[in-house]
Amino acid sequence: MEAAETQTDLPLAGVRVIELGVWVAGPAAGALLADWGAEVIKLESPLGDPLRGMANPGMGRDVNPWFDADNRGKRAVALDLRHPDGRAIADRLIERADIFVTNLQVGALRRLSMDPESVRADHPRLIYCRVTGYGPHGPDADRPSFDGGAFWSRGGFLATMRQPDCDPPMPRGGTGDHTTGLAAAGAIAAALFQRERTGRGALIDVSLYRAGIYVMGWDIAGHLRGVRVAPQGGRRGATNALNNMYRAGDGGWFYLTNLTADAHWPGFCAAIERPDLVADPRFVDYRARRQHGAELVDILDEVFRARPRAEWGARFDAHGVLWAAGLTVPEIAEDPQAAENNAWIETADRAGNPVRIPAGPADFDGVNSAVAATGPEHGEHTEEVLLELGYSWEQIADLKGKGAIP
Fold it and tell me: Which residues contact 164 (CB under 8 A, 6 or more apart)?
């Protein structure tokens, strides 16, 4: 895997980011900016980001892959923003910054005087990105939410993915957060480009709810134009049996993705060695296969039990049938296609052991990240950053004595 030799190899080299973020969505945006070469300083309260408390009991309290994944490559500064000296430190950092990213609640930002109006008044070139659950306006502007609520539930995924007579699926952690973080990082990059032309900063608002609506855009766009939202019917209710999930004889799942089903039907029947199905009146064209979909799925389930997934895949490839393996997480971790395409940031933990972290989805000239570190310890770089700002060791000791920094 290619890796950046220095941060100057990446497009955000020289860009300074201050992140006031907790849990996932805001920090995920900051992590992507760090991947792309930016210098990211994470501000935390004396208690720290609550995500630090998520440790795997079986791996020890110091092992936190979730925090590392979304705080890779950052420097951590711990300070009390309620203390005037702590706030003064934050102001000096923001004065030097290009970007400020936060996902604190609207009310909390206002109480800390870290809301956009307070911060941008003295920094007209600053790009201020505010990540919220439901957006900064309206009756739910200050409603707290994780992605299971604002993105998955209110965004429509759980209701539309629920199959008949089944409970809604449970959300997977961080999915909506990472989608929202990616949207925030992209918007920040656009605002940086705008600032190069105009000299002006910007206020960016990104929410879990809006991201969910956008990702659900096909269903919602159809509804807004009078199209009925099709219910989730399960595998046997698929309207196109060649665009459906199946299980091979070795237990591995795969997804057929042949949207233009009539064009692929003869090749598909050849791949499964069932030429008799090509002209079967029940399945002769898309309309007939839709009418007899459950029958066809039952036939294919029986056929696919005869061979392992890899063998079916080779047959599909030989006959131009579109498919994808339904990989488990352990299978993804060992997938050579992922490794060949820079899916992992390879670094070391604090004990020097090699670890992998999922990378952001973009490469720049074959390079995917400048990051060479896992998430920082709470306040790990406080003294380092204060020295860079011109504070003396005596002043740092005084700040600790006052409680401005822990």
Answer: 231, 232, 233, 234, 237
Residues 85-112, mean pLDDT to the nearest whole number: 97
Q: How far is CA 275 from CA 55, 270, 284, 305, in A?
A: 55, 6, 11, 18
Tokens 């990059």 sit on residue: 189
State the span(s) of the chain assigned CATH 3.30.1540.10. 235-327
* Residue count of the chain: 406
Cβ neighbours of residue 257 closer than 8 Å, sequence gap 6 or more: 243, 322, 323, 324
Of the candidates 180, 188, 232, the one whose C-alpha atom is nearest the C-alpha of residue 18 is 188
Q: Where along the chain do the CATH 3.40.50.10540 domains lie?
A: 7-217+343-402
| 174 and 24 Cβ atoms separated by less than 8 Å | yes
Predicted TM-score (pTM) of this structure = 0.93
**Cα separation of 162 and 178, whole Å?**
22
Tens digits of residue pLDDT in 358-381: 999 999 999 888 888 899 999 999
Question: Quick check: 8 pLDDT over 80?
Answer: no
Please state which of the ranges 48-57, 86-95, 121-130 shows the lowest mean pLDDT.
48-57
For 109, counting Cβ atoms within 10 Å of its Cβ (0-12 exposed, 13-18 middle, 19+ buried), the class is: buried
Asked if residues 180 and 204 have their Cβ atoms less than 8 Å apart, the reply is: no
What is the rounded CA–CA span in Å between residue 141 and residue 242? 44
77 and 382 in contact (C-beta within 8 Å)? yes
Cβ neighbours around 70 below 10 Å, total: 28
In 3D space, the residue among 95, 103, 83, 106 whose CA is nearest the CA of residue 151 turns out to be: 103
The distance from CA 357 to its chain's CA centroid, rounded to whole angstroms, is 13
The 10s digit of each residue's pLDDT in 286-332 is: 999 999 999 999 999 999 999 999 999 999 999 999 999 999 999 99
> Angle at CA 227, nearest 5°, toward 133 and 165?
70
Classify domain 235-327 at the CATH class level: alpha beta
For residue 101, what is the enclosing H or E element? strand 99-102
Region 111-132: mean pLDDT is 97
- Report, as an integer, the average pLDDT of 117-140: 97
Look at 158-167, 274-283, 313-322, 340-349 and tell me which has the smallest mean pLDDT. 158-167
In this structure, CATH architecture of domain 7-217+343-402: 3-Layer(aba) Sandwich (3.40)
* pLDDT at residue 147 is higher than 90: yes
